[in-house]
Amino acid sequence: MDTNLLLNIAQQHGCPVYVYDGNKIESQFQRLQDAFKGVKKLKINYAAKALTNISVLKLLKKKGSGLDTVSIQEVLLGLEAGFAPEDIMFTPNGVSLEEIEEAVKLGVHINIDNLSILEQFGTKHPNIPVCIRINPHVMAGGNSNISVGHIDSKFGISVHQAPHILRIIENTKMKVNGIHMHTGSDILDIEVFLYASEILFETAKQFKNLEFIDFGSGFKVPYKEGDLETDVEELGEKLTVRFNQFCKEYGKNLTLVFEPGKFLVSQAGFFLAKVNVVKQTTSTVFAGIDSGFNHLIRPMFYNSYHHITNISNYGGKERFYSVVGYICETDTFASNRKIAEISEGDILCFHNAGAYCFSMTSNYNSRFKPAEVLVYNDKIHLIRKHETIKDLLHNQVMVDLD
C-alpha cells in the first residue's frame, strides 16, 4: 500500500490503527479460485477467526465466499453480514452439545470433531447431515502451536478411529455429507499436503453419501522480501488432477472445499503505530511505540515475524532498533531489527497484519483497542472506531458498597 496513503490514514484516524487493503483481499480470493479452475465444483469458505470485522466479511461475501466459523458468535456475525446459513460451516472444537444445537437452529452446516458429540448428535438428529473432521496424523505447519493435524493434536477424530465412526453412523442412521481435515498453518511442503489428502481420499471411500470434501487450508504467505510461500498454483494443478480422478472413482462430482484465513487477509493488513520514545541503553536502542502486545500479540505469542518499516522516513539510512510496546511487562515486537532511522513521533508500519492480529487484541492494562480502516477501490472507510473509556465500562455493573 502507498506510504503516503498510510501516513494520511494515520493523521486522519490517529494511531494505533489497523488498515486493510480490500482489493488485495479480493485478488487473493481470485488467485485461489484460478488455481482450482479445473475443479467442477469449488467452494471457498473464509476462516472468519483470522479477521472478523463485519465489513471484511461483507467484502468476501460479495466476492462469492462462504464462511468457516469456530464459535456461535462467529456464526451470528456471519448471518449479520448477510451470509446465508447454508453458506456457513460451523467447525468448533471442544464445545458443548448445547452450542452445536444453537448452530442447528440457525440452519448452518455442522462439522463434528469428536466421537462423543458425534454419537450424541446422531442419536438426537439422525436426519441432519453433518461433516466429520478427520485427524490424518500428518505434521504440517510452521509452529507447533498452529500445527493441528499431528497425532497429539486435540483437533479431529483420528483416521485410525474410522471403524468407530462407521459404527456410530450404522447405529444412529445419521447422515454424513462431508469429511474435513486441517493440518495446520504455514504449510510449505505441497507433497506433505498431498500426502494428507490421500489419507482423506482413502477415508472418504468409506462414506457412501458425501457431497463435499474439505481440505482445510494453512497456505503460507511471505512475511518479508524473498520469503517462501505456498505455491498454490502448483498445488491447484496437482490436487485438481487427483480430486477429479477421485470423483470419477466415487461416481459423483463432489465439491472441493477450502477454508483459507491467513492466505486471504494477512498481506492485506497493515498496523500503524507512533513512536513515543527512542531510548538508548548501554547495549540497545529501543523504539517505544504507542501500542503493545494487547494490540498485536503474535510476536510475543508465536515468535512470529512482522516486517517493520518507518513510513515517516521511508528509504532513510538504516540503524538497528528493538521495537517495544508500552505494556507493563516484556513486550517486544522486534529485536535488533534494521529499520530506517527512527525519531520520536515517526509512524512505524507493521506488515502482514491482517490475520490473527486485531482478532486477538485485548484490553490488557486497560488500554483501548485501536480503530480499523478499510481501503477499497481508492476509498478510505472507517470500519471500527477507536475505543473510549465508555467501551471499557460498558458491561461493568456499578454496585453500592456503602
From TrEMBL:
GO biological process, one term: lysine biosynthetic process via diaminopimelate
Phylogenetic placement of the source organism: Bacteria, Pseudomonadati, Bacteroidota, Flavobacteriia, Flavobacteriales
Binding residues annotated for substrate, in chain numbering: R298, Y302, E329, Y356
Cofactor(s) this protein cannot do without: pyridoxal 5'-phosphate
Descriptive protein name: Diaminopimelate decarboxylase
Function per UniProt: Specifically catalyzes the decarboxylation of meso-diaminopimelate (meso-DAP) to L-lysine.
Pathway(s) of this molecule: Amino-acid biosynthesis; L-lysine biosynthesis via DAP pathway; L-lysine from DL-2,6-diaminopimelate: step 1/1
Keyword Lyase: yes
GO molecular function ontology, one term from the record: diaminopimelate decarboxylase activity
UniProt family annotation: Belongs to the Orn/Lys/Arg decarboxylase class-II family. LysA subfamily.
